[in-house]
Amino acid sequence: MEEMLESKHERVINEFESVTKDAGRVQTETLKRILEMNGEAEYLQSLGLCGRTDPESFKACVPLATHSDLEPYIQRVTDGEDSPILTGKPITTISLSSGTTRGMPKFVPFNDELVSSTMQIYRTAFAFRNREYPIKNGKALQFIYSGKQFKTRGGLTAATATTNVFRSEQFKKTMKDIQSQCCSPDEVIFGPDFSQTLYCHLLCGLIFSREVQYVSSTFAHGIVHAFRTFERVWEELCTDIREGVLSSRVTVPSVRDAVSKLLRPDPDLADAIYEKCSRLNNWYGLIPELWPNAKYVYGIMTGSMEMYLKKLRHYAGDLPLVSSDYGSSEGWIGANVNPLLPPESVTFAILPDIAYFEFIPLREEVEEAEEEERIDSSVVYKELEPVGLTEVKAGEEYEIVFTSFAGLYRYRLGDVVKVKGFHNSTPELQFVCRRNLLLTINIDKNTEKDLQQAVTGATKLLSDSKLELVDFTSHADLSTDPGHYVIFWELSVDSDNEEVLLSECCDQLDRAFVDAGYVSSRRVGAIGALELRLVRRGTFHRILDYYLGLGAAVSQFKMPRCVGDSNAKVLQILCDNVVKNYFSSAF
Ligand code: AMP
């Protein structure tokens, strides 16, 4: 059996090696397949492709498109028009992207091809991961949550992409093939109440603690959130295991029934867990202590997840952190095929048969060019022509554009990536940030990455104190004259006597934005002093709850790192919970 599995994973690696050796040709073929499959779609027909499927005709006829360009078409699909609008085969399912940036989910088409590519990514990443960190047949403690499903006005099923994937038939089979069966029964994953599901995931993880081979969630936030919760509920979990009776906090009947079936009174296990938890120092190394056979911790740890790495390392102790793959509700992009790399330098090798990729070059000199204009809060660069997958250069940054099997053509995802190198002839990308400019008052521009670096720098000042940053976001406050940057921080403990330290953090944040526009505006007073606002503990949890209420799923949740005026509700939650504020005296 083990041997058969071995050869299955080797086969996946061989296939990957073969398509990446000939990435240029595979891309041309992939485009041809997409266009043949969808040639009768109204969108393509209207652009005069007339059945041509070569890259040159495609680029000449089909314009680059953002989500808002395609929204009218997607709306018609969502409303139930069954003519071929974006795809040859009608779309019957819609995904809701997390919509972090604009504060509300976007609708995107979902189909079987997306399920297949998701499985291909999972299998590929697993095959490479398993070569370095082999696991035995067992279980995975996976903090996964299926959000709610609903019907659109036109009768299509709509849910987040992760929900659509978890509900697909292929998901279970793939999880079995890659030895990643979840400890919790389906009723838990599909339970309607997020906190009850989380509690049950923890409980099932403890029941099967000896079998657990790795611990994961889609995003690192999910793992950190789970163990922060564990710190609060561990004694209750021990009681449940000792007595064999599920806590009354789990009220959903289907979830109660399914988990109760797994519970037997087990005082020995309860004592062992109790003893281990009592012995831990500030929960350091919690994961390997309670799950002694776990080989690694797995989830997306890049981009906006970097902020949770410190806490994740703390819980993981000496276990390796392996960062997972790169994709979106709209489609997958690449897999982590170098699992030994630390999360800070992880790259994603593009699967050239998963979609047709193009890359808009973003060069420094372009950024500085005079043609630069400002629309809303985003900088529009003088556009360079997109280049193909095999034409990108190592060391350069690009905006990613793809054409998928699910009705998106030359679609601008809005992500900035950097080419770190190549795996055979396919690029290995590093995720840089969302392209949208985050913070801007006038001539300054600071991205998600700049903000992330500023916050990382300032939190270093906290390392000798008992304060720990739980989460953060920012806001460009234009209601004051001049406008100024506001950074919201939630700390793990109340900070009554840390005035001096927090003022220093505030100054440090202000100094950390080194963009010339910011520095010069600060010097002449065209931007006011940066303000650090501390929010009450639990505020970011409220924001999470707010997004869940909108239909987001925890599995896909990404905290917005900048909250604009248009995201009024989240801004309100933040402002209502401010307990203290500091103004920088750095300038
Ligand atoms: P969603 O809207 O929920 O489909 O999220 C898709 C977005 O999540 C992408 O466009 C990226 O900005 C971000 N994302 C997905 N995977 C990764 C990753 N591995 N590293 C960093 N950011 C990611």
Descriptive account of the structure:
With 587 residues, this protein is α+β, with helices and mostly antiparallel strands. The protein is globular and about 70 Å long. The model is unreliable at 365-380 (pLDDT under 50). Residues 97-98, 161, 300, 302-303, 326-329, 413, 415, 431, 434, 556 line the site of adenosine monophosphate.
Question: Could you give a short description of this structure?
Answer:
Keywords: Ligase. The chain is α+β, with helices and mostly antiparallel strands and 587 residues long.
List the helices and strands and how they pair.
Elements: H1 2-21, H2 23-38, H3 42-46, H4 55-61, H5 67-78, E1 93-96, E2 107-110, H6 112-132, E3 139-143, E4 150-151, E5 157-160, H7 161-167, H8 169-177, H9 186-189, H10 194-207, E6 212-219, H11 220-243, H12 253-262, H13 267-279, H14 286-290, E7 296-300, H15 309-316, E8 321-323, E9 326-328, E10 331-335, E11 348-350, E12 356-362, H16 364-368, E13 373-375, E14 378-380, E15 387-388, E16 397-403, E17 411-423, E18 426-434, H17 448-459, E19 469-477, E20 484-491, H18 499-512, H19 516-524, E21 531-535, H20 539-549, H21 568-576, E22 578-583
Parallel strand pairs: 1-5, 3-6, 6-7, 7-8, 20-21
Antiparallel strand pairs: 1-2, 4-5, 9-10, 10-11, 11-18, 12-15, 12-16, 13-14, 16-17, 17-18, 19-20, 21-22
This protein binds adenosine monophosphate.
Residues 97-98, 161, 300, 302-303, 326-329, 413, 415, 431, 434, 556 line the site of adenosine monophosphate.
GO molecular function: acid-amino acid ligase activity
Organism: Acorus gramineus
Family: Belongs to the IAA-amido conjugating enzyme family.
